[in-house]
Every structure is written in structure tokens, then in C-alpha cells.
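Quick note —
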Amino acid sequence: MTPQAVAQAQLDAYNAHDVDGLCALYADGACQYRHPDILLAQGRQAIRRRYAERFAGSSPRAQLLQRIVSGNTVVDSERVHDGASYTELLAIYEVMNGQIAKAWFRNGATTQLRVARHEDIPVMEALIARSGIELSKGFYSEEQAAAVTKHVFGVDTQLVEDATYFIIERDGEALACGGWSKRATLFGGDRHKSGPDPLLDPATQPGRIRAFFVDPSAPRQGLGTMLMQHCEREALAQGFQLLELAATMPGVPLYKAAGFESVEDFALTLPGDVSVPLARMRKLLSGC
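Predicted structure written out below.
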């Protein structure tokens, strides 16, 4: 096999959690290192033990972002997903006679999704304010963006209490937040709510997708998709077959890409007689 084919076979075997297949791609005396020179495993048996331990307690999946081939060396830039987190990884393979003779791995930043806590609220409010202003450019006027951010956007603390609101962090820095809801409120933070917020009936009513915001410093990195996939799994596990949301115009492309369809356009009139267009969108969950 060519070096490129060996690297691809290694990736495929890793994602299949195929320890035998992985070990067959390594030479008898192969070495794995944490870049640049910390020995992780030497010899096929040591490599076997390392992969067996890796797969014993989790189900990682490597996503190839970029591959560079130079002679007998292959450099893969990957994103390794494991549950509700992923880690950036640089993998370098030296291939000799159709097998990996040496491999170096260098871990980058770890991005993790977790349940938001009350102590996260100030950080999330600041993130939401930044996102509401910056990511509305090209969709809303400055007046509209300022009005909806001030009067509507924000954390709904009921979602935090329900443990259905999440925060995504990268090495401890908040980059996104969002959630789903089993309650009637369709949109808006605490400042926009009034009155009771009753529970929905999963058998007859759609669950809600609520308050997705990505920090302007981290656009187009798949964070919204990561939130959406997690929320859909959670809602489905709670018996909801349909999801509904009120989308601001900046959010419509994300929601369409996630399979939501627009069912109604409407406008929100805010103080100062500012009108902000929104879209009601719905999605039937797969597996229903």
C-alpha cells in the first residue's frame, strides 16, 4: 500500500475500533511518540494494549480535516470526537514497506460541551451580548440588533434549572451556549418572560430549541451543529418527536442546515417601535 493508503486504513480501523486491523498496519518494532520524542508504545504488542485501553472505556471517532503526503511521510490534521467533546490532533506517520514504522501524535485544544450551571450565567450573558450584536451584521440593522439583544436575548434560568441548557468550552474558555426545552416558552431570556412556563406534552407538543449563541471569535467551527446534535438526542430521549424554534435571521442558515423548515414568518415589536423579523421553524426528529 502507498503511505496515503496506509494512513487512510489506519483512520478507518481506528473509527471501527478494530484493534487487530490497527496493529496489522504497524511494523513489528514500530514506535508511537507524543511529539516530539516522548515514547508512548514500542512494538506491536504495546501498541495493541494502548488501543485496547483507549477503546475499552469510550467510543472515539476521528474526523480527518486535512492530509499532507510527502514521500513516505503522512501528516493528518484530525478532530477526535469522544462523547460531548473533541480534541484537535496532529498525527504524523512514517511508512516503510507498507507499514507504519513510527508515529507521532500532538494534541491540540479540547472542546467540550457540558450542562450549564448557575455560576456560568454571567459568562453566558456576556457571550450572548457579543454574539447578538456582532453576528447580526448583514442580517439586521444596528438598531434591530441592539434592540433584540437588549430586550429579548439572554439566559432563561429555567433551562439552567432543568439542566437542558449547555455551554461549550475550549480549554476552559466559553465559546457557545444553547439548549432545548420541555416547556412552553418559545424564545427569550428572563427579561422577556412573564407568567408561568408549563411543561409540554411530548406526545402532542413539540419541544423547543432555545437560545443558540456562538462567540464572534469562533464562527463556522461546527459549534452550533455540536449543540444541535446534542439537543436533538436529549429531546428524543425525553420522548419528543417534533422540535420547534423561533429563529432570528442570523440563525436561519444553521437551522436549515440542521433540517428545520420554516412554517411562519413573524415580527417582534420592541421598545422604540423597532420591528425585528423572526421565523418559526420545525423539524421532525429522525428515529420517530
